[in-house]
UniProtKB/TrEMBL annotation:
Species name: Brevibacillus antibioticus
Pfam family, one: Glyco_hydro_129
Protein name according to UniProt: Lipoprotein
InterPro entries: GH101-related
């Protein structure tokens, strides 16, 4: 029947639209139940949505400021209307098991909806968090906080716990969204979407589900959604589909960053005899090379001269001298036939080809032989340089019982310094990767930040991201600029071809940022790019490295838009903790100062090696198991292997090492360590006592889905996870024993039940 204008106005002003339907039956899934038998009501003026199930009515979205409404159209299972002043159309349709809510801009640049409020929330912040709305520490942390949805939420949903059930929003459009929190009187938040002028897609929306009020149900709903989208790809299928069975080397593998960034280590040099080999001509040649190394170069030169006056070499002098030698050994100006007449015929032959024709690994090999000709018996044969922190360390790890491991290098030059180390890792059965990044680009070259250096020098002006206001977007730490990923692939190919031509047998690769959800709109007229195109380009370059170079790919964070591309990720389990806190980042006198990036030659930087306590205000938010939920694992346990961010490795937080071990077992998370010979000697017993339990457990659990998760005690400190049909791990984080199904669980322990086999792990007191 045709509606008149008057009738429309009456509908808008007086009616509360009620749309209800019942499906024939609820959709049953593994470990979860989606509720299709709910009704809903809508108030278009204030965009309130109410849901009722089993006689319990809840508000799904809080009222916004009342607006003028036109074009109301309703049917038995749907309603649509327009906000003429906002230039926005809204459509809500009842599907079999959810509401489909779509908002379309007809001119507005942004809109905020829904505004949600509940007793608590289940949010995929990192691995997952339970956030009580009235919790003071969460309120303090989230006060006036605005989070990028794509970056901060590892999966595309949020869930609100109501009295009898949960309301779960699955986000249709990943891009240009923020989540804005308020905390007065309790935590609530609003979802805001921008409609960029450069983006032709003028819609965003949600699927609204009603589900049981627990994380297993919520994750189960989302997992089914991911499957429907064709986005769930288990590790076993990745290994088969990409013809890369090396993915299986991740099963049961702890993750290590090894710090062998120097040619010579302190134990390679006979220090008392060193000055007898250093003549004025050699030091003069070094001085010319080290002049380009700033303050560090000046310090090295000074110490080369100082030790000539001494009958000893102090530790700080050893570090400065090694730093200078290691810097010079990377230089294409190091070799001089007049200065080094003693060099071997083999080295002279290499030099005869022309320095510029040598690959980096060939250059380093030549320079090592040249330096050996000067230092002679003060240093061992070049093949043995740096062995303690590289090949020898690998042999010790293998002998200790580490059969599988993922090993990362801080950058690929470490491999050029000692290609035999990479080969040794392969032969040991380990995965070996380099850190890489295509995020920032610098105009001035810095060899210590070689990921920001590109052969194509036109990229800095012609391929960097422009903000809406016309300014260039700065790179990491506000240095350089951001490279537009849609223009990066030729440089990715060039870099990877060059690296792999250096006789280094990498079988894995780690790419910073690409899986972290850091998307950008580029307003450059010459290469306008949307966030969606940015994401596709990042996935494309990861896929290229994976497929064309046959490498096991990992990336930072591992948000689930990248789940089909990557095999592992660092950062979801423990992200970077409160980046802006000056006590942690700037105040070197603070007990919480995490340390700097710089390190003396051959040492692990403080940022990774120094153990620091965590501020109590952050402990609850970031690492307290009471507030953690395995949401990501309940969806992706057998599809993406996730660990900690490299700044927050398993041993980083003082007083929390044991708790993090227990949580790694509960959540099936690989421990992540930073190692050199010194750290290995100090921590080997602790690491190996843990890995004897963790590795066989992970090897089995990672090949199965996480099928259940339960909180077993009122204080939430006893929890259980289930993998597959019968592999269980129960963890008692508390300081008191706990009885579970007739068995006493010791305080601070994990009980692993595999069929009829049981094993207990007691966390160390640190």
């Amino acid at each position: 029947m045709k509606r008149t204008t008057i009738f429309l106005m009456v509908v808008v002003l007086l009616l509360q639209v009620v749309v209800g339907c019942e499906s024939n039956k609820a959709t049953e899934q593994v470990q979860t139940k989606q509720h299709a038998d709910f009704t809903f009501e809508v108030k278009p003026e204030t965009f309130e949505v109410f849901v009722e199930r089993d006689g319990v009515k809840e508000i799904a979205s809080e009222p916004i400021l009342a607006r003028k409404v036109t074009n109301v159209q309703k049917g038995e299972q749907e309603i649509a209307w327009s906000y003429p002043d906002d230039q926005l159309d809204v459509s809500i349709k009842k599907k079999e098991d959810h509401l489909q809510i779509t908002l379309t801009s007809t001119g507005t640049g942004s809109f905020s909806w829904p505004a949600v409020k509940g007793a608590s929330y289940m949010l995929p912040l990192g691995e997952g968090k339970w956030v009580p709305a009235d919790d003071s520490k969460w309120q303090s942390f989230l006060k006036e906080e605005s989070l990028s949805f794509a970056e901060s939420f590892s999966m595309r949903f949020f869930a609100v716990n109501k009295s009898k059930y949960a309301l779960m929003y699955v986000v249709d459009n990943l891009f240009n969204n923020t989540v804005d929190f308020s905390v007065d009187p309790t935590i609530a938040f609003t979802f805001a979407h921008e409609f960029p002028t450069i983006n032709p897609d003028k819609t965003y929306g949600f699927r609204l589900y009603v589900t049981d009020n627990d994380p297993v149900s919520v994750a189960g709903v989302y997992k089914q959604y991911v499957k429907e989208q064709g986005e769930l790809l288990p590790l076993a299928e990745k290994a088969k589909a990409k013809a890369n069975p090396s993915i299986e080397k991740l099963y049961g593998a702890p993750h290590f960053y090894l710090w062998n960034k120097s040619f010579l280590s302190v134990n390679d040099v006979k220090w008392n005899a060193l000055k007898t080999k250093l003549n004025a001509n050699f030091i003069g040649a070094l001085e010319q090379i080290l002049a380009s190394n700033g303050v560090d170069g000046k310090e090295s030169i000074q110490q080369f001269r100082e030790i000539q006056k001494q009958d000893y070499v102090a530790d700080f002098q050893k570090k400065a001298i090694l730093s200078g030698l290691n810097y010079a050994l990377c230089s294409r100006e190091f070799y001089n036939l007049q200065l080094f007449p003693q060099v071997s015929e083999e080295a002279k032959k290499s030099f005869g080809k022309g320095i510029d024709t040598l690959t980096d690994s060939q250059l380093y090999d030549l320079n090592k032989k040249v330096l050996k000709s000067v230092l002679q018996d003060v240093v061992p044969p070049v093949e043995q340089w740096g062995n303690a922190d590289s090949t020898d360390l690998l042999k010790e790890m293998k002998a200790a019982g580490i059969d599988q491991a993922w090993i990362g290098l801080p950058n690929w030059t470490a491999a050029y310094m000692k290609p035999a180390f990479i080969q040794e890792a392969n032969e040991t059965g380990y995965l070996i990767a380099s850190y890489d990044s295509y995020h920032s680009i610098h105009q001035e070259e810095n060899p210590d930040w070689n990921t920001a250096i590109f052969k194509d020098k036109s990229l800095y002006e012609n391929a960097t991201i422009t903000k809406k206001n016309g300014e260039k977007k700065a790179g990491f730490l506000q240095q350089g600029r951001l490279l537009n990923p849609t223009l990066s692939l030729p440089s990715v190919k060039q870099r990877m071809d060059e690296i792999m031509s250096n006789d280094v047998a990498f079988n894995s690769w780690f790419i910073d940022v690409d899986a972290a959800g850091d998307f950008n709109d580029d307003y450059s007229p010459q290469h306008t790019t949307t966030e969606a195109e940015d994401m596709k380009a990042k996935l494309a370059r990861m896929d290229y490295i994976r497929d064309e170079k046959n490498l096991v790919i990992g990336s930072e964070t591992g948000n689930d838009f990248a789940s089909r591309s990557i095999a592992f990720a660092h950062g979801i389990e423990t992200p970077v903790i409160k980046w802006a806190d000056p006590d942690m980042r700037k105040n070197k006198q603070s007990p919480y100062y995490v340390g700097g990036y710089w390190s003396p030659a051959g040492e692990i930087p403080e940022r990774y090696a120094k153990q620091v306590p965590i501020k109590e205000e952050y402990r609850q938010v970031y690492i307290d198991p009471v507030y953690s939920l395995p949401l990501y694992k309940l969806v992706y346990n057998n599809a993406v292997i996730t660990s900690h961010h490299w700044e927050w490795g398993s041993l980083k937080i003082k007083g929390e090492v044991g708790t993090r071990m227990l949580k790694e077992l509960l959540y099936n998370v690989p421990p992540l360590y930073h190692l050199d010979k010194k750290m290995w000697d100090a921590e080997q017993e602790l690491i190996m006592n843990y890995l004897k339990v963790w590795s066989p457990f992970h090897k089995k659990a990672v090949q199965q889905e996480m099928t259940d998760y339960r909180v077993l005690s009122e204080d939430r400190l006893v929890q259980k996870s289930v993998y597959g049909d019968d592999l269980q791990v129960i963890v008692n984080f508390s300081q008191q024993d706990f009885t579970y199904e007739g068995q006493v669980m010791k305080a601070r322990s994990a009980l692993i039940i595999d069929g009829n086999d049981k094993q207990t792990f007691l966390a160390p007191a640190q």
